[in-house]
Amino acid sequence: MKKILITGGVGFIGVNLALDLLKDKENFVVIYDNLSRNGVEKNLKYLLTLKLKNFEFIKGDIRDYKKLKEIVNGYDEIYHLAAQVAVTKSVESPIEDFEINATGTLYLLETIRKNCPSAILIFSSTNKVYGELSHLKLKEDKKRYYLVDRKNGIDENENLNFHSPYGCSKGTADQYIRDYYRIYGLKTVVFRQSCIYGPFQYGNEDQGWVAHFVIKSILNEKINIYGNGKQVRDILFISDLINAYKLAIKNIEKCKGEIFNIGGGNKNTFSLLELIEFLEKKLDKKIEYEFFDPRPGDQKVFISNNRKFERLTGWKIKIGKEEGIEKLIKWVKKNIIR
Ligand SMILES: NC(=O)c1ccc[n+]([C@@H]2O[C@H](COP(=O)([O-])OP(=O)(O)OC[C@H]3O[C@@H](n4cnc5c(N)ncnc54)[C@H](O)[C@@H]3O)[C@@H](O)[C@H]2O)c1
Questions:
Q1: CATH of 2-335, one of 3.40.50.300, 3.30.2170.10, 3.40.50.970, 3.40.50.720
Q2: For 118-176, what is each residue's pLDDT tens digit?
Q3: 20 to 30 Å CA-CA from 124: which of 78, 162, 231, 241?
Q4: How far, in Å, from the CA of 83 to the mean position of ligand 1?
Q5: Is 198 helix (H, G, I), strand (E, B) or coil?
Q6: How far is the CA of 81 from the centre of ligand 1 (A)?
Q7: What are phi and psi of 70, to 5 degrees?
Q8: What is the dihedral of CA 134, 163, 38, 34, to 10 degrees?
Q9: Which pLDDT tens digit goes with each residue over 179-211?
Q10: Which residue is closest in CA terms to ligand 1's atom 11?
Q11: How far apart are CA 142 and CA 290, in angstroms?
Q12: How far does the centroid of ligand 1 lie from the alpha carbon of residue 285, in Å?
């Protein structure tokens, strides 16, 4: 039996990953999460109602080094997803943000190094490590910005330029994770993720914008737009991210010690205004929104160049943006009632 640990595993990405891994009865999945994210207790409740014999939940904090030393033992695969995930909150509480994202990651790395050094470690980093990217040439029309210099999107050779405490703390973790491969030989893989979206995502104004826009639209609530709404993001449906994680594990000899940008790429982008327009058509209603000042470190465009990972593993996106949003709409209609 394969023993798998998911930190932050009742969050959006974690619960989807757990449900996928739990389909294989040869996997024993342990989730470690402090339940601090609003809404995630519903994800845990859902997992527990399945009454699976190959699942265990441990309530705990990634900052609790003593507890980590007790529980991180004998794992074959570890997915480190636990994090303070919002740029806005990191600006309000930078020390707490650093302790969770940077120090917590270092604690986990140390326990893996000491207790189960042969485990594969997958880490969910972020494209925010590239900062605002304000040096990039952009074009602009009524609804969106366009990249001029990086026609295939942003690849892993882009300079690191941590911006916002969240960018700094996740960037620190990202570099430590890679360095534990170089210095200690741990089998680590870093994914610098664009916006991921899908079911079980309790998106809010601070994080998870696609789900947030869908939820607000369905509930007929006004959306606040920070900046002019022309910001462009590439969006990746959750099942395609999970496939990427699994392919990295399958191809670990090629992937260990590597860093990959991963996102929806050129074909799966929306500006904020475009997503609203798309939702208005899909839901057949007018969506209300209001503009506010831009937020610190907000990239005008981020589009991931996925070629390095595609080349190494043969990964391909299966769910395009329209299909993905339709799946998310269905889930929200069924599950979000205020
Ligand atoms: N969703 C995205 O678009 C996206 C994009 C880039 C990177 N990421 C990264 O992916 C990971 C998962 O993101 P998500 O979207 O599932 O977020 P999420 O907020 O839904 O999940 C994070 C989980 O971590 C838990 N957690 C928070 N602080 C903790 C702590 N101190 N100890 C233990 N558990 C703690 C929360 O309770 C939550 O269940 C995060 O590391 C995030 O930075 C996500």
A1: 3.40.50.720
A2: 999 999 999 999 999 999 999 999 999 999 989 999 999 999 999 999 999 999 999 99
A3: 231
A4: 4
A5: coil
A6: 5
A7: -75, -40
A8: 150
A9: 999 999 999 999 999 999 999 999 999 999 999
A10: 81
A11: 16
A12: 32
Query: What average pLDDT does this structure show over 239-262?
Result: 98
3 state DSSP class of 27: strand
Q: With pLDDT > 70 as the criterion, what percentage of the chain qualifies? A: 99
- C-alpha angle 217-223-226 in degrees, rounded to nearest 5: 145
Residue 299 clears pLDDT 80, i.e. is over it:
yes
Question: Three-state DSSP class for 23?
Answer: coil
User: Whose CA is closest to atom 27 on ligand 1?
Assistant: 83
Domain boundaries, the chain: 2-335
Structure-block tokens of residue 218:
């369905």
Interhelix angle 209-218/272-283, rounded to 10 degrees, is 40
Nearest residue to 68 (alpha-carbon basis) of 117, 106, 108, 105 = 108
Q: For residue 188, what pLDDT is reported?
A: 98
Whole-structure pTM over 0.85, yes or no?
yes
Q: Is 226 a catalytic residue?
A: no
Going by alpha carbons, the residue nearest to atom 18 of ligand 1 is 11
E strands, the chain, in order: 2-7, 27-33, 55-59, 77-80, 120-126, 138-140, 145-147, 187-193, 195-197, 223-226, 232-237, 258-262, 269-271, 289-292, 301-302
Q: Give the active site residue among 166, 197, 202, 245.
A: 166
State how far the Cα of 240 lies from the Cα of 242, in Å rounded to an integer: 5
